Amino acid sequence: MRVKRRAISEACGALFNTSARTRKSPLSMEILIGNNMVTYDTFTGADQKVRTIADIRKDFPILSRQVHGKPLVYLDSAASSQKPQAVLDTMSTYYQTYHANVHRGVYALSEEATAAMEKARIKVARFINAHKGKQIIFTRNTTESINLVAYSWGGANIHAGDLIVLTIMEHHSNLIPWQLLAQRTGARLEFIPITEDGFLRLDAYEQLLQQQPKLVAFTHMSNVLGTINPAKQMIAQAHAAGATVLVDGAQSVPHLPIDVQELDVDFLCFSGHKMLGPTGIGVLYGKRELLEAMPPFLGGSIMIRKVGLRESTWNDLPEKFEPGTASIAESIGLGAAVDYLSALGMENVLRHEQAITDYALQQLQSVPELTIYGPRSADKRGGVISFTLGDIHPHDLASILDQELGVAIRAGHHCAQPLMEHFDLAATARASFYVYTLPEEIDVLVQGLHKALEIFSL
Ligand code: 7TS
């Protein structure tokens, strides 16, 4: 199926004029964003140590491999990030030296494993400035965290006729659980629309709030458009209207400094695998009074206090929501990922990604027939760029980039079909960046897009 050409340029206009001023030639890898001088290839960590991106890349063994005989250019971190050696070593050490089940053994190995997992919980709590470790519920991923809230909190609090406000830019993981809840309860769903350049229509949001929704759930950062939504303001407005708020932080927690107390968010959901951690571990943060009042989601194992044949009582937080053997290695690995990101400093992570995104937006202007979706300047978006190239199907584009140049990008609907429909598209190509992304990799992407145009014009 071909991407529909119509509406692409109409909906999104021409390529962006980025706001950053280039100081020297791109090769010098320096630009200004706001008042801050940003270098593309060096990184001053939270500890004030200056690291080059080349140094950071040495921490990620996979980045030195080749694909189709070319150095790997990994531009799909929004789908899943790569892992530093520290995370791999931490998990391997656990398996090699102190693996045992947690929260049940009274012997040394089990106690060591339990202590390591609980330490990781505290690290995650500090990373997002949660008040207590017990507000961090370990799940498998963002999807499971949202389902937990929809099933448990939603089942207890949402009734027929209640309104749930979402946005049209949600990942399916922050849409389907609410559809299922609405089907079970008879609740109503309404959606905040977006502007042409991919911002939420806050005027429409205000109008929806006048209908006094019970819940507002939105993504902090769009995995398609890169738009960073004004979460703090939206949460305050929702609270003023009496709504509870869930924020899908799958794309924001890995890339922006997050302070749940400052945001005053009720629930925040995110995944370890997108923030340098392993797969199979996700987080639900919740306000304590909400989590304590919620009934269990899944039953069995250590989520109980006392079990009878016909009824049981529940454990305290966080165990009430963590039945079954935990993802022990994965939670400890997530703790190591949080250490790694904290040493870099999340302000610096954001700054690097804005610099790389800005560079990419500039360089992509050289590609004819390219249309980019989303906000027009790097300081209003995260490191995700979705685009279409003429009539070339994004899957063809992704295959050419992979086979010709070893570039990994994602193509498809990005689990955001309603958003695709809004733009009258079947699919887009998407490049996404992280702490290890080099400007030279953007150059290879641009080279690949020129090559694809050549191939398709034959
Ligand atoms: N929410 C957002 C905003 C996401 O980007 C994703 C995954 C999810 C939820 C679900 O995360 P999971 O860890 O439970 O799978 N996004 C993508 C993506 O953009 N490409 O692959 C996965």
Describe the fold and architecture.
- The protein is an alpha/beta fold and 458 residues long.
- The protein has 2 domains: 139 residues, Aspartate Aminotransferase, domain 1 (Alpha-Beta Complex); 256 residues, Aspartate Aminotransferase, domain 2.
- Helices cover 38% and strands 18% of the residues.
- It has 15 helices and 22 strands.
- The strands form 7 sheets. A 7-stranded mixed sheet has the order 9-15-14-13-12-10-11, with helices on both faces. Strands 18-19-22-21 form a 4-stranded antiparallel sheet.
- Helix 5 runs parallel beside helix 6 and helix 12 runs parallel beside helix 15.
- It starts with 7 loop residues before the first helix and ends with a helix.
- 48% of the residues are buried.
- The N terminus is likely disordered.
- The structure holds ligand 7TS.
